[in-house]
Amino acid sequence: MKNILITGGAGFIGCHVVKLFVQNYPDYQIINIDNLTYAGNLENLTAIENAPNYTFIKADICDQQKLKEIFETYQIQAVVHLAAESHVDRSITNPFEFANTNIMGTLTLLNQAKISWCSNFEDKLFYHISTDEVYGSLGDEGFFLEDTPYDPKSPYSAAKASSDHFVRAYHNTFGLPVVITNCSNNYGPNQFPEKLIPLFINNIKNSKALPVYGKGLNIRDWLYVEDHARAIDIVFHKGKIGDTYNIGGFNEWTNIDLIKVICKVMDVKLRRAEGTSEKLITYVTDRAGHDKRYAIDATKLKDELGWEPSLQFEEGIHKTIDWYLNNEEWMQRIVNGAYQEYYNTQYNR
Ligand code: NAD
Ligand code: DAU
What we know:
This is dTDP-glucose 4,6-dehydratase. The protein is of the alpha/beta class. It has a domain at 3-191 and 222-251 and 289-311: Rossmann fold. The protein has helices at 12-24, 64-74, 88-93, 95-116, 155-174, 196-205, 225-238, 255-269, 299-305, 313-326, 328-335, 339-347; strands spanning 2-7, 28-34, 54-58, 78-81, 125-131, 178-183, 185-187, 210-213, 219-224, 244-247, 252-254, 281-284. Strand 1 (2-7), helix 1 and strand 2 form a beta-alpha-beta unit. Helix 4 packs parallel to helix 5 and helix 8 (255-269) crosses helix 10. The longest helix has 22 residues, at 95-116. The structure holds nicotinamide-adenine-dinucleotide and 2'deoxy-thymidine-5'-diphospho-alpha-D-glucose (DAU). Nicotinamide-adenine-dinucleotide is lined by residues 7-8, 10-14, 34-37, 39-40, 60-62, 82-86, 101, 105, 129, 131, 160, 183, 185-186, 192.
């Protein structure tokens, strides 16, 4: 029996990780803590909300007293830490919130694990989920490896990089058993429609402009979210304490090529004339400090732990688009709220 604390489980990646752990490991008790920011959505978890091995607690990772109570009450033995502010554009307008959640929240959690586990670290694990953005930006050649020097360039990635450093510092200084993974761009069901793929699917559906930053030539490496959750499962169970593993899709796209694929698939699914969605493409002012290219080399994870992406992009993007088209109410409830204000500030400047 293992009592596992998952943070940020009501968010995009977190909900897939929570579902996988609850469904695949009935002997584990999964305690999901999330303070339900704009990005947290309990609707993402209806499939498992009544499972006997699942508990949800609304809690802030910066709240030390609450964390202490949770560690004691549930006798937490492992942490899978996903809670974070995650959107680069929002980090440009509000860097302090990112420093608070991503740095101070991670530090508060690390420190509570250290205190609650009383330096008795046998069979304990603090697993920190991070991003490839900590490595900075690539030119046309090369890949991010686990030993690529950190060079974060946005307030989001600077905060995530700092949190990674704190995790390693707790391992080095106090012997806390940690593992870190740095993953590339995820896509799939339940992603908040501020991120490129769900935003563009929703805008196409509503015949709204598709705001492409700069020339659309920035490159991202896309991974289906359930493949990321599966990698997290493998690293959680087999990862070497103190190690870092990169996770990626071996699947690079320029934004504009990716957007054109989405446009084509949407035309077919919405039974619109070919070329209808592409006409919505609108080039807008570039993101400040926009990283040119991310590309992960996930060979270590493949060679050492046997993980590989299972889904081809073609299938993944179809599944993703179908999910958003079949879950219109999920989308509607999000875009009806404070989202409007965010959207107007971000895109109607
Ligand atoms: P998300 O924004 O969809 O979800 C974040 C979740 O954290 C939300 O449910 C939110 O309510 C919760 N949260 C935020 N602040 C909190 C706080 N103070 N206390 C408790 N809960 C809080 O993010 P995501 O895309 O699912 O990303 C999850 C993690 O994975 C993040 O750490 C992110 O840096 C990392 N990551 C994301 C991607 C990606 O492509 N989305 C890629 C690599 C790594
Ligand atoms: O690489 C991993 C990271 O991927 C994660 O750590 C982040 O949490 C996640 O948000 C994501 O960051 P990106 O900035 O790469 O994702 P986003 O979906 O915001 O943007 C993808 C690309 O599309 C990027 O080059 C910016 C561009 N873009 C984005 C939006 C929202 C546009 O051209 N127009 C847009 O409206």
